[in-house]
Design a protein that fits this description.
By secondary structure, this protein is of the alpha+beta class. Helices cover 29% and strands 33% of the residues.
Length: 78
Amino acid sequence: MRERLIDAQFQKSPLPVLRAARALRGMAAGEKLRVLATDPEALADFKDFCKTTGHALVAASESGGVFSFSLKVRATPP
């Protein structure tokens, strides 16, 4: 299963999370989404988003000012 990618670099909070939320709505349970962002607020935003929605934040990393978030679609609707 391949991972979808959203490049949300240079977009301010909350746009990276909003774009991810829209993409996740059209994905099947268990699929993965990777989001690239440069806004440091994105880390807290994605943690809160996943806690609220039930999607899993599988990984979060930063390299050269670019944050990478890997999310997994929740198994069942909330």
